[in-house]
Amino acid sequence: MSEIAPNVRPPFIAHESFIELTARERARQLLDAGTFRELLGPFDRMTSPWLPLQGIVCQADDGVVIARGTIGGEPAVVCAIESAFQGGSIGEVSGSKIAGALELALRDCEHGKIVRPVIVFETGGVRLQEANLGLAVIAEIQAAIVALRRHVPVVGIIAGMVGCFGGMSLAAALCTRLVMTRQGRLGMNGPEVIEQEAGIEELDASDRRRIWQLIGGEQRVASGLADHLVADDVDEIGSAVRAAFAAGVPAVHRTEAVNRYVSLLARVDPRTISPSEMRALFGDASAAERQARDER
Q1: What are phi and psi of 289, to 5 degrees?
Q2: Most buried residue among 104, 121, 146, 166 by CB atoms closer than 10 A?
């Protein structure tokens, strides 16, 4: 029986889910075939020193995969978070791997060698067992994204099913462009946390339809808070990532348009506004901004 090379879809498979892949396979599929090279992999034993002290079994890569290779023939680095370990939560080691990879990419960019960075978000945010250390390293990730996006687009992917929450949702918001599936979710606080802290009257975390209306991928793209809505398909996500890099660095990043968002928020009554009204208000403003930028 002949072997099927990595990144090559068997002819009898019409659709390959990105969501169902592990973090390692996601990184492999995003990179050009045959270029995947993992940095600080499981055999390097970069484990959390804090989890064993709390009786938690470590994972040898601490739940983050860093891979070098090429995307569209250009040098690239992919940071993929593994949700199967501690819900994709970010601790000292896992966060340092992402921050370190982005900082090395920044160093290369500053020396004239452009490296395309991709972050695959699948995380509830900071790892509570390493709270302060995790928060500190998430701040390092955010700083690295801001510095790096001046040179090259930083592309984020939120596919599902965990979504992206907490401090890492702020990191995702700082990315130049965000690719989301309909199954993906993006928000500062997860539904379960909101229900726990504010009560079921504020949000019923079991109301799946409502959750996706509020923070799902389709809503976030329609509201202009993410950029590309794609199907859960390896090829389609890969194409969206390449298109995001081809678009280049924008004149103004979304997080730099502070006055625009302040003026939009001033028009929102959180007691009554509906998801469709959010789409109309934020989505129309985002479309107008994109048109003005294109005309410039």
Answers
A1: -65, -45
A2: 121
